[in-house]
Design brief:
0% of the residues lie in helices and 47% in strands. By secondary structure, the protein is mostly beta strands. It has a six-stranded antiparallel β-barrel with strand order 1-2-3-6-5-4.
């Protein structure tokens, strides 16, 4: 999906901001190369949209809050979402408030 850098490969349940499971057992790659961490994954077309807040729940209790920016959903089903907060990396965060997803 993404080449090079300090990428992390995870599997977890992708959930909507309301807590509904969108994709169970989803394989996600976190690209940590730049200042903003980006989650990259594949979904069926139309499963998620741009300007949408999501959560990735990883076994062991790790929660990663994601936000799909404009242009983040590709025609081939690849999705790129900014990592807003990550309980596995408490020092990392974009400083966005959850209310900004409404």
């Amino acid at each position: 999906m993404v080449s090079g850098g300090e990428n992390e490969h995870l599997t977890g349940d992708l959930k909507s901001s309301a807590g509904d499971v969108v994709a169970p057992g989803l394989a996600v790659e976190i690209d940590k190369l730049g200042g903003i961490h980006v989650a990259v994954f594949r979904l069926a077309k139309g499963a998620v949209g741009e300007n949408e807040g999501l959560f990735l729940s990883v076994p062991g209790g790790r929660e990663i809050e994601l936000y799909i920016l404009p242009g983040g959903v590709q025609y081939d089903g690849t999705v790129r979402a900014a990592v807003v907060q990550d309980s596995g990396q408490p020092a990392y965060g974009l400083g966005l408030e959850p209310s900004s997803f409404d």
